[in-house]
Amino acid sequence: MELLGANPDRQFTLAEICRRLTISRATGHVILTTLAIHDWVTRDPATAAYSWGPAIASLANPTSTHRYRDDLQALAAATGTQVHLSRRQGETLVIDQTAGNCLTGPRIGPGLRTPLVAPFGREYVAWAAPDVQKAWLEAIGQPSVALRRRMTAILKEIRTRGFAVERLTTEYLRVYTALRALTGDGEVDAITAQLARAFADLTVIDVLPEELGDTASHSVAIISAPITDGSGAVMMSVTAAVFTTVDSARIRTLGEQVRRTAHDIETRIACNPHPSIV
């Protein structure tokens, strides 16, 4: 903890940590896995390196996790939906806090996890380097030509409009529930990856401009927008839980509201990344 806490902006490999602490690789792996589950450290799935986690920061500033409550409450009131703030923790996305209610969808509370595997978490990888996007997509196995083409187009569209749209289908509800259960320990295993792959192959992911149209209606589960940290990496996101059928104009309006809230939080982070305790 002292090693990572003294270098909060740096990542360390397992081998480097074990060498510095003079412990075996097996012991180091067990310790780091446990720490990652409890948010003390964060594991980067692209590099397999470790850095200090959000739980360390919360000790230094116990009010930091609630800094954005007013933003979430305002968004919930404006959209009439439940909204939540999620943060990236290694290979999973963890809901940090929520506001509002969704009468048409599942109740979502703090602590719930979903895996950061394709096709989920698109807003987290849309701005990433091509090799990171490739690793994210291929973590579920070699994608079909059609799926690779679809995801390339979708990630480009997310970068353009600033938010991701999750379609509401029976398959989504079932897979989402299963993935949350499978990712409860913070690990993404082969079963999780295969389930995500089946969902990606059997459903239409997100909505492209030509599908959105001007007057068409769509069943929407959630709309999410990314929040970057000082380095430009996407580490958090804001989500509106829609879980109903809405027209194209409503999707655009909701997307813009979510995107604007994410931008406001992003600006606050940039201006005051390490607030003092109040």
Automatic annotation (TrEMBL):
Gene Ontology terms for molecular function: DNA binding; DNA-binding transcription factor activity
Keyword Transcription recorded: yes
Top-level taxon of the source organism: Bacteria
GO terms classed as biological process: negative regulation of DNA-templated transcription
InterPro entries: GAF-like_dom_sf, HTH_MetabolicPath_Reg, Tscrpt_reg_IclR_N, WH-like_DNA-bd_sf, WH_DNA-bd_sf
Keyword Transcription in annotation: yes
UniProt keywords, alphabetically: Transcription, Transcription regulation
Residue ranges of domain HTH iclR-type in the record: 1-54
PANTHER family: HELIX-TURN-HELIX TRANSCRIPTIONAL REGULATOR, ICLR FAMILY (PTHR30136), HTH-TYPE TRANSCRIPTIONAL REPRESSOR ALLR (PTHR30136:SF24)
Protein name per its UniProtKB record: HTH iclR-type domain-containing protein
